[in-house]
Amino acid sequence: MTTLTARFEDALHYANALHGTQRRKGSDVPYISHLLGVASLVLDDGGDEDEAIAALLHDAAEDHGGRPRLDDIRIRYGDKVARIVEHCTDSWAQHKEPWVERKQRYVEHAGTLPADALRVSAADKVHNAYTILRDLRKVGESVWDRFNATADDVVEYYAGLVRAFRQAGDGPLVGELERIVNGIRREMGS
Predict the structure, then answer these.
(1) How many domains does the chain have?
(2) By the 8 A CB rule, do 128 and 180 touch?
(3) What is the DSSP letter of 98?
(4) pTM of the entire structure?
(5) Which CATH number characterizes residue 60's domain?
């Protein structure tokens, strides 16, 4: 059984300080809700405190400072947390590469993830894909306006992640991601 200590609480405050003014793409939902959702999925899947902390911080380097942010995370929360965050980061650039290019590169990387990073990355993708499915049902095709890619590109990205995650080690979160991707396809009529 995982016990959460003051480190987790500190990481929650740190994540909120970084992401507190952000909103989820295309909505007015506070971004911290995503980070909490990913941490919840990680803990439900049996993750330890380091993995839960990495879940809270998985977008910190990508969205707020690149490698210097990762170095700060390493100092504050240790090598394991920083390594997982590094594995979850798909861009270090301030001005990110095109969406399809970044995501294809991440799918290739995802096939090599160690178990702890696989758990956090899969939880992240489950939460994101579920949000797409939910919003597709709620607002329809306009959900795709949030992306710098076509609906087909987005769905293929998540399907590619399912294949890559299975190559890296599979697990219940990967099965859940596959079910959500299939749900998105059904909603799209494909």
Answers:
(1) 1
(2) no
(3) P
(4) 0.96
(5) 1.10.3210.10
